[in-house]
Structure formats: C-alpha cells, structure tokens
Design goal:
Blueprint lengths: L5 E6 L8 E6 L7 E11 L1 H8 L16 E8 L11 E4 L2 E3 L5 H4 L10 E2 L11 E5 L4 E3 L5 H4 L5 H11 L7 E5 L4 H12 L3 E6 L4 H7 L3 E4 L6 H9 L3 E6 L4 H7 L3 E9 L12 H7 L2 E4 L5 H12 L7 E5 L3 H9 L6 E5 L3
Parallel strand pairs: 10-11, 10-13, 11-12, 13-14, 14-15, 16-17
Antiparallel strand pairs: 1-2, 3-4, 3-8, 3-17, 4-5, 5-9, 6-7
Helix pairs in contact: 4-5
The protein binds nicotinamide-adenine-dinucleotide and zinc ion.
Length: about 350
Amino acid sequence: MSIPKTQKAVLFREHNGPLLYTDVPVPEPSDTEILIRLSYSGVCHSDLHAWRGDWPDPTILPLIGGHEGAGEVVAIGSAVKNFKVGDLAGVKWINRTCLTCEYCLRGEETCCMNQDISGYTVQGTFQQYVVADAIQAAKIPPGADLAEVAPLLCAGLTAYKALKKANLQQGEWCAIIGAGGGLGSYAVQFAKAMGFRVIAIDAGNKSQMIKDLGAEVFIDFTQCDDLAKEVERITDGGAHGVINFSVSSKAMNVGIKYVRTLGTFVIVGMPANAVIESNVGDHVNKQFNITASSVGTRAQMEDVLSFYSRGLVKSKIQVFPLSQLSKVYEMMEKNKLQGRAVVDNWR
Ligand code: NAD
Ligand code: ZN
C-alpha cells in the first residue's frame, strides 16, 4: 500500500482554541515504532480535558489528540519484531513505557515514570496515520470490527482494571457512577460478566441503554434527592464497591458516603481541580478503602479484547466524521452522548 506524504488531522494550537481540520505530514516510524493507517478513533473525555487544559501536566502544542485508535499496520521500524505489515493494531493512552524505571521493573507499567501518552505528550489518533511504540501497541484480532474495537483501547481497558481494583466478590453490589458514558457503559457489562450486582447511576436520558447493558438498578442522579440514602436502602448498608467515572466532584464526594463498611471506592474520573473530602469518623467506623485506577496493563488489554471477542461486552458507539470532532466535544460536555463517540478518520 502506498503511503501518502500528507493527511487529514484535527489539531489545536492552544487550549480551548479552534479545533482545526487540516493537512499535516504523515509521520515516519522510528526503529521501534509501527505506522498505523487508522480507520476509527474513540473519543474519550480525557481528550476533552486535554483540549481544555484541565490538568496540571502540560500537553505538547500544537496537539493532535486521541488515544483510542484502531487500524492496520502499514510500515514497521527496523527493530520491530512483534508486528508485520497488514496486522491490525491499536493505539492506547500509554504509547510507550521505558521498561527500566522502578515501576516498570515491578510490572506496574501504568505508573511508568517516563511514559509517552498518545494525544497528550505525543501526537494522537485524530489523524489518518499515527506512529506507536510497537511494545505498547495493542494486537487486534484479525477480522475485528475496528469501530467497535477502538473504544476498548482506553474506555474498555480502564473500566476493566477499575473493576479489578474494586476487589469485589461474586454477588456483591457495585455502584457505577457515570454508567452511561464511554467508560461506564463498559463497566456495567464487565461487572455483570464478573458476577457483581450493578447499581448504575447517570442521567435519565441514558436509563434505557444502561438497563439494556445489564444493570440491575438504575438511579437518575438528577431526580434523586438523597443518593447515599437510596443506595444504602437498595443494598441494605451500602455498595461493596463504588467506582466513579463521572466528571463531577460532587458525585465523588457523595459516592464515598455510600461505600459499605470494608468496601472500596475507586477514583477514575478526573474533573479539573477535584478534591475529595471525607469524614475521619466515617473512615474509622467503616474502615473502607479509597483507591484510584489508571488505564491498564498490556496483559489486561488482552483480557479486555478476549471478553469482547467472546461476546461478553459490546461497544455502545455513535459514529461521527473526524471533521466534526468539535461537535462531539460539545455533546460530551452536555452529557448528551450515549456510550462512546467514535470518529471515522476518513470523513
Ligand atoms: P463520558 O463523558 O463519556 O461519561 C461521563 C458520564 O458521567 C456521562 O454519561 C454523564 O452523563 C455522567 N455524569 C455526569 N455527571 C454525573 C453525576 N453527577 N452522577 C452520575 N453520572 C454523571 O466520559 P468518559 O470518557 O467515560 O470519561 C470519564 C472520566 O474518566 C473523565 O474524567 C476521563 O478523563 C476519565 N478517564 C480516566 C482514566 C483513568 O485511567 N483514570 C481513563 C480514561 C478516562
Ligand atoms: Zn481515555
């Protein structure tokens, strides 16, 4: 396949600045990288945070965002052993890890101190061709539907690992805050597949989709006066695991109130400048855990793709042209998307 010199991308030069649909050079892979011709890219709320400049860690500028890209390998660097031209490959949030820092050595690659992040510290997937480190790129099974696989690369992976960190047993209650969003829509399905009882919390416009995904109980946070009391009533004492995927500090500060004694609260959503305040007496009385979760490892990525291939989780997607990324961000900010928005990199 011939590789063009230029391609379409969406980039911005300053935070909150125009999202320009424009021509940029096609990147060349280094010795350890692969070049992927992307078909689809999921749009994560983290991409919106990156555009807004919500977080203290700086992005590169100008930036091409995106970190859920699925496509076909069209070139490989001279040192690449694990991919060949024609393979299907995915680009994740973690584009490269150093393999040598304290955390990489312990197998905790999501904490790598020298990681490159797609669509944040290196150019991401809102372009037609992207380079990715071959070690961290995901192997996508042949014949997979690339629009459906794309959001598994961050949303699916992050939801899966967060559920592991909730440390639940079969039959226990798992409250999923933001259950109708990109991450939450996968979390509901993974939780069900793992044998947990799901209380899904989101706005009413997403209730049907969430129930279809298998939630046992749905609570519309916009209509519920006392969420903590309601969850405690339903679960007879609080949810064993509470995972926050919403972009709301308030939801987190309420969420830690309905964790069951000895249960676990998992932080995933990252609203700008968010702070959790909790009562020390509650901590001592209930001895519950507060932890956080960041994306997932390569091994967990394989698990996620296997769940998908076996039909245990489905991707709830709405497809838009890449050229309309700004419209997707607008809808995301207003919580109007159902599940995950995916962009077609060729429209
Ligand atoms: P999303 O916009 O698709 O989903 C957020 C959902 O939360 C929406 O369905 C929305 O309706 C719902 N919501 C809003 N306010 C709520 C409230 N008060 N109570 C309950 N639900 C509420 O976002 P996403 O792409 O799923 O990402 C969610 C968050 O997770 C973002 O902050 C993102 O940056 C973060 N994230 C973290 C990691 C990680 O590794 N920790 C990875 C990916 C994304
Ligand atoms: Zn993401």
